[in-house]
Specification:
Layout: E1 6-10, H1 15-25, E2 29-36, H2 42-55, E3 63-67, H3 70-74, H4 104-119, E4 123-125, H5 141-154, E5 162-164, H6 172-181, H7 204-216
Parallel strand pairs: 1-2, 1-4, 2-3, 4-5
Helix pairs in contact: 1-6, 6-7
């Protein structure tokens, strides 16, 4: 049997990244990257990551956990600055929410591409969703088109790494449905921006998750306050 090519998946432990892991697992040998960046729910997200990695039997040499603590020092986001409250969901807002972490995905992808060059991975998967793009500029399709050009310009001539965004045009409900069809361990994922015990149910991430499960006709296995 031909050995599968390796793909790195940026795995936060959230719903979208969990389904992205399941998608990549269909065709590739997985390497999982998790980044601690001083976010409020860092410990809970790390737990979710470890449980998802165990679910897919990822060996230690294909797991990388990076720490970027300066996001908390920089601040500017309610995810990393405890003085800024996490907003409740604002379903009609088109502005950038307080939970936006300045230029975060660029740093995450840079770590992933660095690792990909070393281990020979040809793909980097990230669970970006364009539905989030009115608030998050680094979730827009154009951003990833530009980043892939940056990889070509900024890596060795023989490097062939492409960032893949398999969920970019899907709705959250479609993502949940796809997750169930791929037997993704959605019960292990964590989406809440505020809490580490029971999900708050009112932040934007919880709202989108709850709505996605409801719209897809599935029950969310996560416990809420």
């Amino acid at each position: 049997m031909k050995r599968k090519d390796t793909a790195i998946v940026l795995a936060s432990g959230g719903l979208d990244s969990c389904v992205t892991v399941a998608i990549a697992n269909e065709e590739y040998e997985l390497a999982l990257l998790h980044i601690n960046y001083g976010q409020r729910t860092e410990s809970r997200e790390l737990l979710a990551f470890h449980e998802i990695a165990a679910y897919y039997n990822i060996p230690g040499e294909r797991i990388l956990i990076a720490n970027i603590d300066y996001f908390r020092k920089i601040g500017g986001s309610s995810l990393t600055d405890l003085k800024i409250p996490v907003q409740d969901a604002e379903t009609d807002s088109k502005g950038v929410p307080t939970t936006y972490v300045p230029f975060r995905n660029t740093l995450f992808l840079s770590v992933a591409v660095s690792w990909a060059e070393v281990i020979g991975a040809g793909k980097v998967f990230i669970g970006a969703v364009a539905q989030d793009s009115p608030g998050y500029p680094d979730c827009k399709p154009l951003y990833y088109e530009v980043f892939n050009k940056l990889i070509v310009a900024g890596t060795k001539p023989e490097t062939r790494v492409v960032v893949e965004t398999p969920l970019i045009f899907k709705t959250k409900a479609e993502i949940v449905t796809l997750g169930f069809s791929l037997k993704a361990p959605l019960h292990l994922s964590w989406s809440c921006y505020k809490n580490t015990e029971k999900a708050c149910g009112v932040c934007n991430s919880c709202y989108l998750r709850l709505k996605a499960f409801k719209d897809s006709g599935h029950k969310d296995p996560v416990k809420y306050e």
